[in-house]
Amino acid sequence: MVNVAVARMPPDGSGPSGSAPVSEPIPALNRHEDNKKSKGVIDESTLDPRLLDVNSDYFPPLEIVWRNVWLFAYLHAAALVGLYLLAIGQVQWKTVVWGKLKYIII
Asked: Are 42 and 92 contained in the same domain?
């Protein structure tokens, strides 16, 4: 187990006026094994072997949904037009405030 030294003031209440803080080892909050789980490290020995082979029949074939492609293209183009209008000063300050309020509320 890993120990971490923590500085603590003495219990007599003398404070920082002249006495040095007391160091007391405490156990670390996050051990290495717990860190591996929280950082998304995957142990490949516990995985289904079909997940490691992308060309297996386990995965469905990729399919492009053209409606979504056109929708995202339109939304990005509209955002670019909006940024252009904002940059050249064609947007009133009230519109920007309204947009920020709607962003906060929704």
From this structure: no
The answer on 39 and 15 residing in a single domain is yes
Q: What are phi and psi of 25, to 5 degrees?
A: -75, 135
pLDDT band at 1; cut points 50, 70, 90:
very low
Q: What is each CA distance from 14 to 6, 18, 24, 73, 95, in whole angstroms?
A: 18, 8, 18, 68, 60
For position 78, what pLDDT does the model report?
Answer: 96
3 forms beta bridges with 27
The region that residue 77 occupies, defined by phi over 0 for left and psi between -120 and 50 for alpha, beta otherwise, is alpha
Structure tokens at 91: 């947007």
Question: Containing domain of residue 84, as a range?
Answer: 64-106
DSSP state for residue 47 in the 8-state scheme: S
Cα–Cα dist 10/25, whole Å: 15
Compute CA distances 96 → 51, 74, 76, 79, 104, whole Å: 47, 21, 18, 14, 12
**Residues 23/6, Cβ–Cβ less than 8 Å:** yes
